[in-house]
């Protein structure tokens, strides 16, 4: 059996700062991990990007590929979008694909790639009426939405990702 491939797609919420530990946990659970980040998350982790790239063994993606670039990532068995900010959840649900993470996640719905997300938003943003509409849209599209705020339960997120490929 081949090693399952997890696309770990992180956004700019504080739990993204623990992404190296999450990759290690995923590896210990038997995942091959590809890391994608929003531009702001990549900026937050800028000094750690070389180590994270070494940890995954693949380039980290935080921008769209150019048309002439070959995709060096293997196909995803499942994608975990976590932590997922208010901005990313809404962009994804509305099909706004200006950045790599919501673009990949939106396309994954159409490709039938299993998706799990764990939003991480503050209470004020969670009360915005668009947020619940966006979560409902994602659920209706087959995305598993886990509750994560104020923190991300990475073990629960990885476990759910595993269930989505079984």
From TrEMBL:
Coiled-coil boundaries: none
Cross-referenced InterPro entries: Flavin_trans-like, Flavoprotein
Pfam families to which the protein is assigned, alphabetical: Flavoprotein
Domain of life, per lineage: Bacteria
Domain Flavoprotein: 11-146
GO molecular function, one term: catalytic activity
Record protein name field: Flavoprotein
Organism whose genome encodes this protein: Streptomyces triculaminicus
């Amino acid at each position: 059996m081949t090693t399952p491939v997890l696309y770990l797609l992180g956004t700019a919420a504080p739990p993204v700062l623990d992404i190296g530990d999450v990759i290690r946990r995923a590896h210990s659970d038997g995942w091959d991990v590809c890391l994608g980040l929003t531009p702001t998350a990549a900026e937050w982790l800028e000094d750690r990007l070389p180590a994270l790239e070494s940890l995954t063994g693949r380039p980290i993606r935080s921008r769209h590929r150019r048309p002439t670039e070959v995709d060096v990532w293997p196909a995803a068995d499942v994608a975990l979008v976590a932590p997922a900010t208010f901005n990313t959840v809404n962009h994804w649900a509305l099909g706004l694909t200006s950045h790599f993470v919501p673009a990949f996640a939106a396309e994954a719905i159409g490709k039938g790639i299993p998706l799990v997300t764990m939003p991480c938003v503050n209470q004020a943003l969670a009360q915005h009426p668009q947020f619940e509409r966006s979560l409902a849209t994602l659920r209706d599209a087959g995305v598993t939405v886990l509750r994560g705020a104020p923190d991300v339960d990475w073990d629960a997120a990885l476990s759910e990702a595993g269930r989505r490929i079984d």
